[in-house]
Amino acid sequence: MPETMYSIKMRASRAGAHISGAERIVPARFVGQVSENLHARALGHPKGIPDSIVVTTTALVADDIIYLPELTVTELPCATPSQARKLVTDLLAEITPHSDTIWNYLETVTGMRGAMLVDAETGHRVEPDMHRGVRASTMDHRSSLNLDARAQPGNKNYVHEARVLAAKVASCPHVVAEICISDDPDYTTGYACVQGRYHRIPHMKAAGTNQGTRVIVIDRSDEHALTEISEYLENQAVIVG
């Protein structure tokens, strides 16, 4: 009988404000150690010590898990946030006339648990909850199925986790692009994934700022798009790699 798989999700906050989150999908034998690692990660976050750490563990149905390939990564040379803006807006111009509006969202909105959803045709935000956003969740990398959980560090592997997240979002129906800037003050590299092409871009923001967010650009021509996007991103279990 196959070993049961579990989704483990961590959310850390202080005074109700989101500080950090992380998640894994692992076999049953790794649940204890991975839960401990996620607690350690929450306590060591550069944005400060949380007053609440919630770790939720849920069994998954094996046949419901989707396995996706990793996205090919293109590294784009970039030395300043102004250069990053030009790179990102040029990429977005392929799929929307509102690339400058989308960059403005990246510079002015922060502190959300999830991502903004922006209509490619209008440039308007359309996520049902403007404060929370839509959170891509229930995902991990295939390596989590094989490695001893004791070898998994509690600290964040930005590149690894960004590529898992981007692969899931890119596979979502009606999604045409995603742009991400981390809200961690010491991490300034972000990415733009446009029509399934992942571009890693350094210096997307100035060091030392908590500003950071994610924008998912969508095609709303289907009347059911918002419901299908939210359901897939938040609930569909995905393993990448």
Automatic annotation (TrEMBL):
What is this enzyme's catalytic activity, as reactions? Answer: heptanedioate + ATP + CoA = 6-carboxyhexanoyl-CoA + AMP + diphosphate
Pathway in which this enzyme or protein is active: Metabolic intermediate metabolism; pimeloyl-CoA biosynthesis; pimeloyl-CoA from pimelate: step 1/1
GO molecular function terms attached to this record: 6-carboxyhexanoate-CoA ligase activity
Q: Which cofactor does it need?
A: Mg(2+)
Which UniProt keyword terms apply here? ATP-binding, Biotin biosynthesis, Ligase, Magnesium, Nucleotide-binding
Q: Which InterPro entries match?
A: BioW (IPR005499)
Q: What is its EC number?
A: 6.2.1.14
Please tell me which top-level EC class this enzyme sits in.
ligase
**Record note on quaternary structure:** Homodimer.
Q: What is this protein called?
A: 6-carboxyhexanoate--CoA ligase
Species whose genome carries this gene? Corynebacterium propinquum
